[in-house]
Amino acid sequence: MLACALVLVGGAYLVLQARARSHRAELLAASQHSLELQVILEQDRAAAEASLATARKLSALADLMADRQSWLPVFSLLEHNTLPGIYFSDFAGDASGSLTLTGHATSYTEAARQLLAFQTASEVAAVSLVGLKPEGDDLGSPQVGFTLALTLKPSLFSQAK
Predict the structure, then answer these.
(1) How many structural domains are present in the chain?
(2) Which residue of 17, 49, 108, 140 has the smallest Cβ count within 10 Å?
(3) Does one domain contain both 85 and 113?
(4) Burial 86-103, CB ≥16 within 10 A → b, else e
(5) Which value, to the nearest 10 degrees, does the dihedral of the CA atoms of residues 101, 103, 107, 109 take?
(6) Residues 110, 86: contact at Cβ < 8 Å?
(7) Tens digits of per-residue pLDDT, 82-140?
């Protein structure tokens, strides 16, 4: 009888050990699966953030494209009043009509003539020279860098509508 009890207890012990090993293996597999899911979740979060950033950029571009008609007269003004030999390398502006242009001329005289051309343009309310400096180009020719601040008349923006 004691032998039967020992066999029964020993058998139960072996069954319980096997079940414990099985549960540990299942727990380990679940833990690994959880880690894999965390990695996937992190990748999805990064992709979502990138998508949102792209959506914001596209929204800003769509706003700009929708407003492009109001800027056409501004660019026309710049094209018609920019003198030969002058080129602008930077442009900043806002819808209130304030523009900042960074330009390059072959001489101080040409930079002054460009200032005068904008001063006499009927669509320009005010213009000022906010920077002037000597510089050279890649070929060693003397150049003059200058920055102009323009205030455009509000009527210029309403021409496109």
Answers:
(1) 2
(2) 140
(3) yes
(4) beeeeeeeeeebebebbb
(5) -20
(6) yes
(7) 999 899 999 888 878 899 999 999 999 999 999 999 999 999 999 999 998 888 766 66
